[in-house]
Amino acid sequence: GAGVSQSPSNKVTEKGKDVELRCDPISGHTALYWYRQSLGQGLEFLIYFQGNSAPDKSGLPSDRFSAERTGGSVSTLTIQRTQQEDSAVYLCASSYGPGEQFFGPGTRLTVL
Amino acid sequence: QKEVEQNSGPLSVPEGAIASLNCTYSDRGSQSFFWYRQYSGKSPELIMFIYSNGDKEDGRFTAQLNKASQYVSLLIRDSQPSDSATYLCAAEGSGTYKYIFGTGTRLKVLA
Prior knowledge:
The complex is a heterodimer of chains A (about 110) and B (about 110).
Chain A: E1 5-7, E2 10-13, E3 19-24, E4 31-37, E5 44-50, E6 53-56, E7 65-69, E8 75-79, E9 88-95, E10 102-103, E11 107-111
Parallel strand pairs in A: 2-11
Antiparallel strand pairs in A: 1-3, 3-8, 4-5, 4-9, 5-6, 7-8, 9-10, 9-11
Chain B: E1 4-6, E2 11-14, E3 19-25, E4 33-38, E5 45-50, E6 54-58, E7 61-66, E8 71-76, E9 85-92, E10 99-101, E11 105-110
Parallel strand pairs in B: 2-11
Antiparallel strand pairs in B: 1-3, 3-8, 4-5, 4-9, 6-7, 7-8, 9-10, 9-11
């Protein structure tokens, strides 16, 4: 595809439910990043993948958060037992090695 | 805790003026620095990156890096109302692919 795509664009869920957020990076990009941005805040690093492996998971806020990447391409961020404080825009970015990251449009998650 | 600090603003400048955005970082091992622009409700997009001490110019934008002072800045010449956005500074963690973002500076260019 021409750019990074994310789905869904919006997700409203009830507290306690699980959600899955998907990211399709730019073809050929080996690095993939997940960030969280709360209203009016900067980007909070969650996790990055180099290929299918995640060398750094230090940004995941709790063990309710997990992520995987398969085939060096699509990645899924899963949040279990969602809480209201998980409400934010979740951004995915990809890059070809270190350097410029290309961001997707984000998924706006609202936990009621 | 590695950090990137920015003044949240808003920074207001008149149209045609120079806007100066500043950023400091704590990881002395960081080698690469990036400026992203984020319009309200949109995703960040890269404006400039800089690796070496000194200035780097691209059109109306100049990035400045001073590794000794751990300071990065972005100058926008001939500011336009369309430059009104939040500008995010990011530093690459030393020896990693991890990027630390500042909270951003909101710029308002007044017509």
